[in-house]
Amino acid sequence: MQKSVCDLIPEVPINDEKDSHNMTIKKHVKLGLSALALSISLNSVAAEDPIKVGILHSLSGTMAISESTLKDTMLMLIEKQNEEGGINGRMLEPVVVDPASNWPLFAEKARELLAKEKVDVIFGNWTSVSRKSVLPVVEELNGLLFYPVQYEGEESSENVFYTGAAPNQQAIPAVDYLMNQIGVERWVLAGTDYVYPRTTNKILETYLKDKGVAADDIMINYTPFGHSNWQSIVSDIKKFGSAGKKTAVVSTINGDANVPFYRELGNQGIDAADIPVVAFSVGEQELSGIDTGPLVGHLAAWNYFMSVDNDANYDFIDAWVEYTGNEEAVTNDPMEAHYIGFNMYVEAVKKAGTADVDAVKDAIIGVSVPNLTGGYATMMPNHHITKPVLIGEIQDNGQFSVVWETASTVAGDAWSDFLPGSKDLISDWRKPLFCGNFNVVSGTCGGKSEVASN
Amino acid sequence: MGIIRSLSQLLLVCCLLWPALASAQVDDSQAQQLLTALAESSFKEKKSVVNQIAGSGDDRARTWLEAYGDNKLGRIESSGDFIIVLKNRGRNWTVQSALSGENLGEISRRDIDTIRVNNALRNELEGILSVIDLKSPDEDNRLTAARALKGSVDDTLAERVPDFIAAEESDAVQAALTEALAIYQVEEQGDVSAVATLSGSLNSEARAALQQAQNSDDPALAAAAAKAMESIEQKLKMNRAAETLYFGLSLGSVLVLAAIGLAITFGVMGVINMAHGELIMLGAYTTWGMQQLLPGQPGLALILSIPAGFLVAALAGIAIERTVIQHLKGRPLETLLATFGVSLILQQLVRTVISPLNRTVITPDWMSGSVMINEGLSLTLNRMYVIGFALVVFAGLMLIMRKTRLGLEVRAVTQNRAMARSMGIKATKVDILTFGLGSGVAGLAGVALSQITNVGPNLGQSYIIDSFMVVVFGGVGNLWGTLLAGLSLGTINQLLEPWAGAVLAKILVLVLIILFIQKRPRGLFPQKGRAAEG
Question: What's the predicted TM-score (pTM) here?
Fold first, then answer.
């Protein structure tokens, strides 16, 4: 490989982080010279080129509400990493695109990032349907995608790293908590009508029935996206819960439909002490849109809460408040997932000594980085990570107070043990197995074509 | 563990002694001990500590327990002093000393450990606090406390409740207490004589107790409970019917509000305005803006938003009419596309200028909660206001169209534009005013919707289809049709929803409308006369 012009610059020491003046000069000189180098020999790829980080989050459309903060989180993390001198002396350069909450556009934008912008890694997506749309592109062009949101599982791709929770890291422990600690016997599974809630509820239904819950004691309800008229459903839940057995609602209701749902719960006087609602998609950000007074005591299961009493968390919050300039800015679980994913990527690149996709893919398995709740997250061979599971109760200030947590971290399971099609499958992206859906009974690898569709 | 146990035993002894002491005050070191026990014990042990605090007879006990229930009792990590949190938002919290009540100012969140509370404990606390409140001089407080006791009477409390009943002057409080006691007697003791008290009660705890009694081994109890349940079921059926009707009307009134502006611009003027939803959104954002301008007075801000929302949406509507729609007169397809573009522009504008995130619109106190008709039926207040508001807006609009000169001119221009112009009516001016009126009413809908749904850039999108549906179903150009169509679609939807589910109910309603339009293409109230022929 041709030696870059940048290597000839005398290294300005940047041991002191606060010495940003030196750094900016160096950065400017470096940028200028790399541009020069580029113009001198167009076809040479300089080793000191910045590492390009693609950010694939919707900045407009329905999902902008959730995804735009993740874009800002990534920009903040990249800025901080650059202040510390980048990775192996290479700066990071964010490339932001806007897929506009449009699922096919996600695939197009991913292609643009990988083929045109030649990014080294992508952080992005929120909804499962957008991830499914990006998946073939990332696999075809051999990219890296870090996906930060809790999802339904049943997937493991060579090119995707799932830093959000799989069902066994969120839904199952939450149901265990309700069953064992609260003594719930009757269950309402309420969700928005799309793949994540449907798969999660299928898993939960099987799980509950395995535990001896009668079919009569399970009520399943689906509502469209953005549903706002919750009157009769909430009143049905109230009726279902007045049968004398302790009842709880497991909610996979997504996005802004939650606000009118919780408002209706409050108005109809459903108290958390009578019928607790445990939600998998309601975090600090969703709660910042409502008056949480009537919701006090309802639950959420996540792997991170903003209220966690931990110095790393407080530092992260301070940085976020400073970055956004908003004293009331909140942090949430997917932000922590990006924090973990980003740090894992940084460690993997350091370990591999290069940002080459295949090298990073090998290096990242087994990498451990601190999470924000006082423990460590490790990348498992199935491209999922280890996470603690926390159950929090909503407080009147829009925060959660942790009432229960798992004793140790839980490793994400790509293939649920509670679905007939997937209970024999495992995923291991280390050689020699190197397979995302290995069937332990038949001893064969399903391969890409057989990635279970939901 | 051992230390805590011996400590709590010590405390228990102290507690037993306290009532004998004349002073109702514990000294600060004892208070510190009690609170430390609360902070350091597990959730299970906390329950007995809470009871000790309540039993201490200290004047501050109520404040501590109330703060604890609100997750606002805590400890300063560095000094170990107990505090009550007054403001718990942001990174610095305002606190006061739990023991002396002295205000300690702002302390960093990092340095505060709140004492954890969970639902079970909060329930326990509610019971304890309501026992304290039963001695309150205010009758309303006593009534709320007595109602809260239903289902949470336990063995120790059961002995005290008859004394409370005897000492009580108010009949309502007495009745509530009697019922609370009866629930306990049926549920825990299987007392047949108590079943009669619960007969006809709509309280869910009472129903749960009876349901349990129905399955009991004692045949007399089971039979009595079954009979009592029968009368309850009767009442419940009536309640359900009334409730469904209310839900239907409230959904219907939302539809009417959203559609009535469209009934004017689309129905009367014949303009297909796809940006109608965004005009609703503007109204909702005006409410939000008003509340930002008048912090601390959400009610006043909401009332002021009614004229402000109307004006903002009307001006925006007029701007759209002047810049886009008037140039596309008589070309409905182009109008549709152009206004669709306008709607996307407005949405993205709000996203870029304000935020892609939903905004919090505060519901004023007088609009939140519900009115209790009986214990099984309560009607939510915000919906009730929306129903009333929709009717007022409708009546106002009818008045304008029927009784004012503008209304007369509008009707003249829509019926025969050329003839109206030759009679000296300025058709362009009428166009502007009509469009402004329709848009302004959309703004009013936005103000109302801000109270029941999310205020965000997508607010309008979710209502545009429904609005067109209502207008077409009601008969284009007829305001009465819009009212009737909105209310009936709302009610049908709510009738279908319980058994078909929300998704299917929506589809069924759509199918129903399509079938209806096949049969009667001009809707419920077709326009008659020559104007309709063209």
Answer: 0.77
